[in-house]
Specification:
The protein has 146 residues and is α+β, with helices and mostly antiparallel strands. The protein has one domain: Glutaredoxin. Helix content is 34%, strand content 29%. Strands 2-1-3-4 form a 4-stranded mixed sheet. Helix 1 packs parallel to helix 4. The longest helix has 22 residues. The protein is globular and about 45 Å long.
Length: 146
């Protein structure tokens, strides 16, 4: 069975996260629930991993918070977009946190429609992959070694 791994990173401090990450989490859960069963019908297992970023890690790289990857590539990669930043609030303080720009529109919260579209593109790529074929050696005897 093929696999797609969605990995989502966000700052969590004392069990709290910022509003944009809290909203992204709801959108992510909606997309995951909608996709999980559908993809299993085409022999693709969907896995969701939520990773917490510490305050120390966030201070070093605030743009890692609210980063969503699909099979190791950013959501922006799959959708032909780019990442940006804007001031956040709450546990993030006044740091510039990650935003996503797709088709000229900037999102602070990653919407389920964007997640679904990116995962379906990744699934399409997986389904296009051809199984690796073994190269057979020349028959030296009546039986082949492959």
């Amino acid at each position: 069975m093929k696999k797609i791994i969605i990995r989502w990173f966000r700052l969590v401090e004392n069990g709290e996260t910022c509003p944009r990450c809290a909203e992204t989490e709801k959108e992510l859960e909606d997309a995951y629930k909608a996709l999980k069963e559908s993809l299993s019908a085409v022999n693709i297992n969907l896995e969701l991993i939520k990773e917490e970023i510490t305050k120390e890690d966030f201070e070093k790289n605030p743009l890692k918070s609210n980063l969503l990857t699909i099979n190791g590539k950013s959501l922006e990669h799959w959708l032909g977009g780019k990442s940006g930043s804007s001031k956040c609030c709450s546990v993030c303080g006044d740091k510039e946190c990650r935003t996503v720009e797709i088709d000229g529109k900037t999102y602070e919260t990653i919407k389920s429609e964007l997640i679904t579209k990116a995962v379906l593109i990744a699934a399409s790529d997986l389904l296009k992959e051809r199984p690796r074929q073994r190269k057979c050696c020349k028959k030296v005897s009546s039986s082949c070694c492959c």
